[in-house]
Design brief:
The protein is an all-alpha fold and about 260 residues long. It contains twelve helices and no strands. It has a single domain, classed as ABC transporter involved in vitamin B12 uptake, BtuC (Orthogonal Bundle). Helix content is about 80%, strand content about 0%. α3 runs antiparallel to α4, α3 packs antiparallel against α9 and α7 crosses α9.
Length: about 260
């Protein structure tokens, strides 16, 4: 029988993939990879806020990540170049977060856990938070699925259909903030975007519909989690990077040409 800590780690990782699969598909379709990096980097500043104010870890992280997402949306809406805004805010948030954490007593030695994750240390409470956040994101995406797809494919068509593309973009920002907040303890701030992008990229080739791509991305993410945990235990490697390495291996396999029947 597997140890309790391993069961909790697997449950937390599998719960997270329920959200990262379909959300990652939208990140790939909308070419939001850099946006994912920016919000993930802001998570370290959220960690510092939570530790300094005794806020619940996930609420502090969510508040800062959501503020980052809204700030990016506001600045790019004023004509600023999106890649420039993302670059400035992403690196600034990470730098200020690292500086803030370094001033908090007893936290500096544990900083790597926030950067690269520590899924093997998650508690039952963490598992509940992860599943609650992931199911909330999944419900949000299912509720707005068709509107989000239309706004992603053609903004003019979306407006003609009575859909506000900006509102749908803000909903994706909220969903991304929730995922980042619950994923920090699992894969860490520096690897969250990888877990969003790589399984979705691996699913893109074999998928024949948007829904199939989202489902395959969930499946690829689940295999990445289980494979990464196996690698971590087998080779004594960090769990978060091992999960991302497993995802990269799955992506590499997806590139192998398939023989036509």
């Amino acid at each position: 029988m597997p140890d309790d800590f391993l069961v909790r780690a697997a449950l937390a990782g599998l719960g997270l993939t329920l959200a990262t699969g379909p959300l990652g598909a939208f990140v790939v379709w909308r070419r939001m990879a850099f946006f994912g990096d920016a919000t993930a980097h802001a998570a370290i500043l959220g960690v510092a806020l939570a530790l300094a104010t005794d806020l619940p870890f996930y609420l502090g992280t969510l508040a800062v990540v959501l503020a980052m997402g809204l700030g990016v949306s506001a600045l790019t809406g004023r004509g600023r170049a999106a890649d420039t805004v993302l670059g400035v805010l992403a690196h600034s948030a990470l730098a200020f977060g690292l500086i803030a954490v370094s001033f908090l007593p007893g936290v500096r030695t544990d900083l790597s856990a926030y950067l690269f994750g520590d899924v093997l240390a998650v508690t039952l409470t963490d598992v509940v938070w992860v599943w609650a956040g992931a199911l909330a994101v999944l419900a949000l995406l299912l509720w707005r699925w068709q509107a989000l797809l239309t706004a992603t494919v053609d903004e003019a068509l979306a407006q003609a259909s009575g859909i506000d593309p900006r509102r749908e973009g803000l909903l994706l920002t909220l969903a991304l903030a929730l995922v980042v907040a619950v994923a920090v303890k699992i894969v860490g701030a520096l690897l969250i975007a990888a877990l969003l992008i790589i399984p979705a990229a691996a699913a893109r080739g074999p998928a024949r519909s948007p829904e199939a791509m989202a489902a395959l991305a969930v499946l690829a993410g689940a295999f990445s989690v289980l494979g990464g945990l196996w690698l971590s235990l087998r080779l004594d490697t960090p769990a978060g990077p091992s999960i991302v390495a497993a995802a990269a291996a799955i992506f590499a396999l997806s590139l192998i040409p398939r023989r036509s029947g």
